[in-house]
Amino acid sequence: MSSQNIPLMANNILKYLEINFNGCTSGNEKIDDFIQERQLIIINYDDIVLEWIPYDQFNEIKETGKNGLITVYLAIWKDGPLYKQDSLSNYTRDSNKKVALKCLHNSQESIDSLINEAKKYPIKHKAFQALYDNKDDLN
């Protein structure tokens, strides 16, 4: 990932995300705004750091289900999510994390649905989701 512009330390997660967000966006204003909104409410060490993940960060992508608007895949996220062991430690990544990918089929309605689904989870929820909106990249 291109998110190595500044060192990631315990006290600079918001600055780190602000600097690195510009280079790694979904291309969808609603999704990008939602991600930034969630990043700005990170306060505690155990808060989940929501990020947009580039497609090349996923391995072993397998389709697990689909409906008219969304196809769900299981994949391995190479770098993995940012986390802290405790309030005194620095952030690190949990490499090779299994994740569910939800591929949107060019529908604003499905984007709104996924954002509303993600909003149901508190910032401390341990479920990781990566939203991806270009099915062509998964085939």
TrEMBL record:
Protein name: Protein kinase domain-containing protein
UniProt superkingdom: Eukaryota
Organism taxonomic ancestry: Eukaryota, Fungi, Fungi incertae sedis, Mucoromycota, Glomeromycotina
